[in-house]
Every structure is written in structure tokens, then in C-alpha cells.
Amino acid sequence: MKELLYKFLYEGNISVSPLTVLTSMAIALILAFILYFTYKMTFNGVVYSKKFNISLIMLALITTMIINIIGSSVALSLGMVGALSIVRFRTAIKDPRDTAYIFWAICIGLGMGTSNYYIAVIGTVIIAIISVILSLNLKNDDTFLVIIRTSTKSVDKVRNELFKLYRACKLRSEVVNDEYIEIVYQIKMNKNEEVNDYENLRKIEGVTSINLIAQSGEILG
């Protein structure tokens, strides 16, 4: 029984040839670059982080190397879990898409480390195509939320100006107190209109602040 347990724990690792390691790392690098350019093309946030994008390439390569080291050894896998438990990741991920890209990089590494090349390659190509298509649809979205804080005397003028500027205005929220009125309208712009057209509302007396937020959640003004 002890001999079987010893073989299961310590002799389960199969040595990987240098050619296999080079092949897996090379393909992982190519797929990681596809991930890199996909993230760069589809990014629509406020601040693009090149460091995060580069870290995705490193994550794919590191995962490939780890899986090649572990192989089928249970002892090494348990030791790796203990080693990684020491590391603390405290960086907050604000965009849910970034989490998806992290898992994508890990999947590339897992596929390359286990020599499942076809799964990793086909999956990466399909995910990249879908990501680009969905990002184009998101970037072409022309629906915004405009948040205006104005005095009670000027609120009617603000509403009339909104209806003049945009073909579609729908009230989403309204906050009223003794000092000001804050209204939130959903607007939809024509193709020949620009985002900066809403600045005409600043000329109305009594308007203290205006924020324009894209439907994706990005503050534009």
C-alpha cells in the first residue's frame, strides 16, 4: 500500500521533452498576442492600461510553464497550491471584462501546458472574433444618460432645450428639494449630432452642473 501511494504521489510526473516545452511556449505566446490585440481593440473604458494588457501575456506564459512543471504529479500540484496561497492579490478589478480576459489567459496556459493545442487555438480564435463583434456593437451605441442639476425656476427651460436638441428624451429620475432639482434623462442622438451639443444647456441660467454618461457606464462630461 505504501509503495502504491509513493508511486502515485512522487512518480506520477512524466518528464517533458525540451521540444514539447518550446512548442507549448511558442504557441502560448502567439495566442497571448491575439489576446493582447483583442483587448486593445475592444477596450472602451476611460483609461487604457498597457501594463495590465502585457500582464495577460505573462500570465498565459507563466501558466503554461507551471502546468509543464506539475505534469501529472500530485505532490507537485499540492506544493504549488501551498506556494500560491502565500501570494495575495489585492488589486481591485473594476471592469468585469478584465476578469474574463484574465481567465482567458489562464485557459491558454492550461491548454498549452496539457498539450491541448487544438482546443486552445480554436477557442482563442472564436473568443477573439466574438469579442470584436460585440465591442463594435457597444461602441456604436448612441444612447446616453444626461444628469442636470438646476434651480426650480429653470427646470422647464432645461426640459424644453433637451427636447429641441435630441429626438428621444425619456425621464429616468428626478430629485427635488428646496435648493435645486436634479433630473436624469435618457437621450438618443442622431448620427449628425455630437456629444458636445449638450453643452448648450450650460447657457441656461440656473444650471449648476451637467454630467453625460454613456450607456456602458462611462462618464463623458
Short characterization:
This protein is of the alpha+beta class and 221 residues long.
Question: Any descriptors?
Answer:
4-stranded antiparallel sheet; 221 residues
How do the helices and strands line up, and which of them pair or pack?
Elements lengths: L1 H9 L7 H25 L7 H21 L3 H11 L11 H18 L3 H23 L3 E8 L4 H11 L2 E9 L4 E8 L18 E8 L7
Antiparallel strand pairs: 1-3, 1-4, 2-3
Helix pairs in contact: 2-3, 2-5, 2-6, 3-5, 5-6
State the low-pLDDT regions, or none.
Answer: none
Q: Could you tell me how far the N terminus lies from the C terminus, measured between alpha carbons in angstroms?
A: 71 Å
> What count of structural domains?
2
Q: Largest sheet at a glance?
A: 4 strands, antiparallel
Beta content comes to 5-15%
Written account of the structure:
It is a single chain. By secondary structure, the chain is an alpha+beta fold. The protein folds into 2 domains: 2-139, no CATH class; 143-214, Alpha-Beta Plaits, CATH 3.30.70.260. The chain has 7 helices and 4 strands; from the N terminus they run ααααααβαβββ. The protein has a 4-stranded antiparallel sheet, covered by helices on one side. A hairpin with a 4-residue loop joins strand 2 (168-176) and strand 3 (181-188). Helix 2 (18-42) runs antiparallel to helix 5 (96-113), helix 3 (50-70) packs parallel to helix 5 (96-113) and helix 5 (96-113) runs antiparallel to helix 6. The longest helix has 25 residues, at 18-42. The mean pLDDT is 76.
